[in-house]
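Methods — Computational structure assignment.
A single polypeptide chain was analysed. Its primary sequence is given first, followed by the predicted tertiary structure written as structure tokens.
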Amino acid sequence: MRRLFTPLISLIFLFSCSEEEKKLERPSEPITSTTYKAKMDSVLNAKVKEDEPGIVVLVAFDGEVLFAEGFGMRNVEKGEKLTPTSNMRMASVSKQFTALCMLTLVNEGKISLDDEASDYLPYPIFEGIKVEQLLNHTSGLPDYYRYFEDKKEEFEVIENQDVLDWLATGPEPVFPPGEGWEYSNTAYLMAALIVEKVSGQEFSAYAKENVFKPSGMASTNYFNLASPVDIPERSLCYQKNPLGSFAAGDGFFMNGVMGDGAVYTSAKDYFRYDQTLRNKALLSEELHDFIFQPSSEYEEDGEKEQYGMGWGVSENSASHTGGWIGTNTYTKRFLDKPLTIALFANRDDFFEMGLIGQTEKLTLWYLEDQNLISN
């Protein structure tokens, strides 16, 4: 299947090994629980200053939190520090929750992944697009960001309905449904609207009731700039300029859309959610397994890659990143061992730091040294 161009603002969920990651050397002595924490602290403190936006790291293994800590500030101006209970914008990591919302409706028999999107959004552009193709990036819907980026003067805040109104005018699809692969934020906005139509509830309310609450995610919510809600311990999102200073970027006019992003959650809540998935407590066992099964394929740098329901998937792991105005996020769920690693940043230079690979290396070395996994 042909892989088409994806704008920079979209997801890139695969990483090459950076020079920073290569510098990390395995300690000569076995890593203990004490030295693991000390080494993690050392790596992260070397990258994040105390008085700047930062990163929250979660490492969970076999139902226990191995490491959960914040580095830097959630609100620089007020001097409020990041902690495992700080709620941070997930950007495209939010897609896994949109897919879950759809799958809860499938689980209840209210919708089928084989249904046509036009059954729920009755416009020509949706004809021939299956609901599943919205979730696995094979719908061919055009990118809303490209269209609206020059229309800031026309819209105070863009919401999902504005994007649907644009699609109703019949813009040119990127490719016919199922005949290509392009990462699609637009498709996930439309998936959220279908959830609303089928459930009869506003999308964020449905997600809270059917995904967040059953998973014990008491502080997790969606944030819509057009009708903001109070999110406890909400982290501001910061952009770094070429001079190295940070400025808050929460007022971006596209921060009114939901489905492709907009979830705010904490490391504490994300751990509860991860355990809910591992315990297969939200859906039937079949549907839980389906989340991490390849649903579409594409090529990236000559390599075959696969995508499931809101996750990039391989034989042994599922992962996703998020990148938006002032936020970078990363989650990886190992499928061959009970290990999950998540790093949430309220700054947009996180992917340049090499911390993803360093965190994973240190964790795997520690688990091997403790004979909890084999090398």
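Note: DSSP finds eleven helices and 15 strands in the chain.
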